[in-house]
Fold this protein.
Amino acid sequence: MTAPGKLPAMRELYVIGIGAGDPDQVTMQAVKAMRRVEVFFVIGKGSEKQELVDVRTAVLDEHMDRAYRVVEIPDPPRDRTPDDYAAVVRDWHDRRAALLAAAFAEVEGVGGILVWGDPSLYDSTLRMVEAVRARGVEFDYTVIPGVTSAQALAARHRMVLHRIGEPVHITTGRRLREQGLGESALVMLDGECSFTEVEGADVRIWWGAYLGMPDEVLIEGPLREVEAEILATRARLRAEKGWIMDIYLLRRG
């Protein structure tokens, strides 16, 4: 029996990257890790984004060969247009970590979290896992890399993300608006269509939404010629589905 005041320890946790949406992007390493898991934790995004949970379920249905449980945790709300972005996100992560800590404390076997793309790229899961450990829930954890939306975008557009000898700059829509475009940038988490504020007639865009999913959409061309099409397509898709996940590369010259 657990000592009074001490949370029960989950033996082990796997944080597993599952790719951008296509179940075939799940690596063999990820499949082996999934098959060790007894309980999967899923942070729900509400009814509008139930499809995201459904894709995870499809991944499990295709690759699992043992019984397992799924524990769905409601995602706490947050301000999407804050004055202090960093403070709001830290608070949101802290509230998420509190919910995960409570859920983890009820599991004494092997847990798992399926992460879109890869846990290392614009994803907060690993920070929250460390925050849970800091709250006194003791467990070890292993991170399994996955195919990122950046890789999926490059593959679907049949392109290389960088030119010869140049770096790859990965940023967010907010940072693109604040700092502008240098020579090129791979832009994620852009709910404001920040590419419309980029200046220059020589900019080209490679855009993709729902990469790896059945309703994937790709648009590519000179930015000034295709931005209206991207805006209209994005608005239509978001209205139809209630959510959108997209990414794009901008490049000058």
Remarks:
- The helical segments are 28-34, 50-63, 85-104, 125-134, 149-157, 173-179, 223-241.
- The longest strand covers residues 203-209.
